[in-house]
Amino acid sequence: MKSPKIQLFNAIFIKSLDFGYDTYDYLPGKDEEVPYPFVHVAGSVGSDVINNKEVITGNLSQTIHVWEMANHRVHFAEMIYNLEMALRRLTQLDNYYVRLVSLDSSEIFDNTTTDNLLHGVIQAEYRIT
């Protein structure tokens, strides 16, 4: 059986792909020809409370990054909104039920490359039930 963290990661990754977004499990490097926009399903954090050998409860947190060209703000906002709504609706993983505890997002302008970009960071925390 897969860990709750990888099940949450996989569920979010698949949701992003279902929207048609180019989605990566790593941040593409500068030498890669990756067009904007794209989604990076990043790190996860888990705090499991093991009640016995079979039952795992606790909290899971997943970070999702969204990158888009700064002059495509409307599309960027739609991507963030769609992902947030999918995260709100997520209630079941392969072997666990989850309940959304918190959902935070931030958006910043990023000029660390030659392109003017929008960078969104979504942080979703779930309780394993």
Folded structure, characterized:
The protein is of the alpha+beta class and 129 residues long. The chain is 25% helix and 42% strand. It contains two helices and five strands. The chain has helices spanning 4-18, 73-89; strands at 23-24, 38-50, 56-69, 98-110, 117-128. The chain has a five-stranded mixed sheet, with helices on one face. The longest helix is centred in the middle third of the chain and has 17 residues, at 73-89. It is elongated. The two termini are 17 Å apart. The mean pLDDT is 92.
Describe the structure in brief.
By secondary structure, the chain is α+β, with helices and mostly antiparallel strands.
Write the layout of secondary structure elements.
Layout: H1 4-18, E1 23-24, E2 38-50, E3 56-69, H2 73-89, E4 98-110, E5 117-128
Parallel strand pairs: 1-2
Antiparallel strand pairs: 2-3, 3-5, 4-5
